[in-house]
Amino acid sequence: MKLKAVLFSFSVLAYTGFAAQNIQNNPGSNHGNRFEQLGTILPTPNIYRTASGAPGHGYWQNRADYDITAYLDEDKRNLKGSETITYYNNSPDDLDYIWLQLDENEQSTVKNAGFQFPSTLPAFSNDQQLKATDLPEKDNGYGVNLEKVTDASGNPLKYTVNKTMMRIDLPKVLKKGEKLIFKVDWNYNIPNRIKMGGRGGYENFAEDGNDLYTMTQWYPRMCVYSDFHGWQNHQFTGRGEFALVFGNFKVSMNVPADHIVGGTGECKNYEQVLSSNQMARYRKAESAAEPIEIVTLDEAKKAEKNHSKQRKTWSFEANDVRDFAWTSSRKFVWDGMRVTIPENNNKVMAMSFYPKEAYNLYRKYSTKAVAHTIKTYSEFTIPYPYPVAQSVEAANGMEYPMICFNFGRTEKDGTYSEGTKNGMIGVVIHEVGHNFFPMIVNSDERQWSWMDEGLNTFTEYLTEEKWDNKFPSKRGPAWTITDYMKLPKDQLEPIMSNSENIIQFGPNAYSKPATGLNILRETIMGRELFDKAFKTYAKRWAFKHPEPADFFRTMEDASGEDLDWFWRGWFYGTDPVDIAIDKVTVAVPDLNTLPKEAKETKYKVEKPLQNSFEDISKIRNKEDKNITFSVDKDKDLQDFYYRYDRGQEKLYADKEYTVKTDAGIPLDAKDKEKFKNLTGYQIDFVNKGGLVMPIILEFTFEDGSKLYDKSSAQIWRQNEQKVSKTYYFDKKIKSIQLDPMRETADIDTSNNLWASNGTDTQVSKFQLFKQKQGGGPVRGGANGKVNPMQAAGKKN
């Protein structure tokens, strides 16, 4: 850098208060490839999935339409069903067999996936219920009972059940563009999901003798056949969720006449199953701006006392959905309101179903939270496309298209804590939000839990913030992930891990990806750039099957940001963020050492510098008559060195030339007054955690004022372990705080603060430039104390 430029920057300092200058670090052996491209880690782009992250011109996906009838036997707690599936082969491949999921087999002791967990002896006590181990395991009577599998004409189809998967062998090959129609009849005993666990089943309320049914994963469902995986027929173990195809559904549920049913899609026969008063309230709710009770609390309490033996059939239809779930109980209060999505003017019925045990919470908040969620997610992703969005209180949390199951009950006297209220609102937002990830942006949950849970948790956080700026979100803010990031490496897996193999599933699949996206949005990319890229991803992959590479590539393609370093560290690695202020060197300039005037130097023409070896390229280029060197064509480039090199040295030999050194602007008394308080600070940082992040600093000065500066993560690109930054201020620093807003997930904030000890005065002169040759800064020791040492400089 020439002195003139330095003096100019000092002039700016006098008015702006500070300036920053990076000191280039010698990369040496410190380069750990954190900034290298992901390269072959990502799959090779092709006609199905492009390098930009968008679906390719050859993209395809198969489809399955369902026509299902179901019979709920409340006395036997059994569900009987019959379905007709129309499967469309849109792939370029011929299929000679297909795969279906039998998820209810996970509840069976003999049909489950067999993914056992290690076990140890418990601490025995006198009241412990013990029994001899049954080997082999006895059949507990749960799981799918297949009654009949036939083609459209009723001819039996050969099938094989492998645990939670069923393969049907086709009598003839299903070619590209063809469809297959087949039928499956089945039944299963409905499990008590409170005792046995799982997403679907019944909950019994002993006080009034009623059940609340959540019918999920309840019918044999088509597996996904895709360009990136083939058949996704990995076994269902209870954790990894679902990979499903889109289609249209027609579903009829025959239930006790006093039950209220909610389901995916729109009910087509409310007028036949509701009373006239309930139907009138529903019509009113269709245009209401506040929730209207369609089935009132009094009606629900009355229904609890009478167990009707009559039956009713509810009929639902849903288009372009990947699944269908429903709920049934006589305990339900039901309310609803209309919400309009501004982006597409879609008028949606937001509704909630809940027992009296949740009334005081759900009546106040549930349907409003549903409406808020679909509106806010529509802003950040795509406009909500469906006609219905529903929340069901069922003492758990799980999501399906247009319907989800949540918790949130009051105490018996109807009171509730703030924690219960916030937890209930948070789970409603989260589960309703799943309509977007993965119900619309249809990722493979069985393989990549983070692509639905992580992306959804991130958008949930944005939605919670817009619900209440003080909402106590536990997932999303950077500082909330640090306890997890501190764990020993043997308790951590990369986000890019299969869900079945993860120890800390919640932090790994939910919190860490959500936090990473929030750091990208707030700290690395900025909100405007991030939001546009995130919406691009949602728009590109709505109603399609994205993979991780599609997300990574789209975020970069739509933003112009190279984020491979971030995906590599945050998603593929387990290193934490721990950037420390190692030391601060304080020095002041000696204004008297600055040059007062330009100098004149005599130069004598000497033989120009040349490479010691004339390589083959130089020889061939010189011999090639078709090559004309640019310097020979451009008069401005024909200085005496080039002429000398071309045999014209006699023109210049033994001649001297006077060159005026660009010494800059002499300092007058006014300039000296401006710079007399100037102090230089060199801050040395150490990357102790391994994960690179932007360096964000808050300077607090002795006069109480503050300044902020942020360097992008690329400051670490040449040395990933150590880096320094130099600042010049015209007032004294009291303290320097690294990451003052805790926005990088730094696990140790104890090494993020430097404070002046009161003795950081001028203890040596800081030569900005030598008189005879360029000078380097004086480098100092820790705690702001200067350890004078003149660094060797080179002429600029």
From TrEMBL:
UniProt name for this protein: Aminopeptidase
Keywords: Aminopeptidase, Hydrolase, Protease, Signal
Annotated signal peptide: 1-19
Entry keyword annotation includes Zinc: no
Pfam family, one: Peptidase_M1
UniProt feature coiled coil, ranges: none
Species of origin: Chryseobacterium vrystaatense
Residue ranges of the region described as Disordered: 772-796
Biased composition, class Gly residues, residue ranges: 773-783
Higher taxonomy: Bacteria, Pseudomonadati, Bacteroidota, Flavobacteriia, Flavobacteriales
GO MF annotation terms: aminopeptidase activity
InterPro entries with a match to the protein in the record: Peptidase_M1_aminopeptidases (IPR050344), Peptidase_M1_dom (IPR014782), Peptidase_M4/M1_CTD_sf (IPR027268)
Peptidase M1 membrane alanine aminopeptidase domain ranges (all copies): 370-570
UniProt-listed CDD domains: M1_APN_like
PANTHER family documented for this protein: PROTEASE M1 ZINC METALLOPROTEASE (PTHR11533), PUROMYCIN-SENSITIVE AMINOPEPTIDASE-RELATED (PTHR11533:SF174)
Domain of life: Bacteria
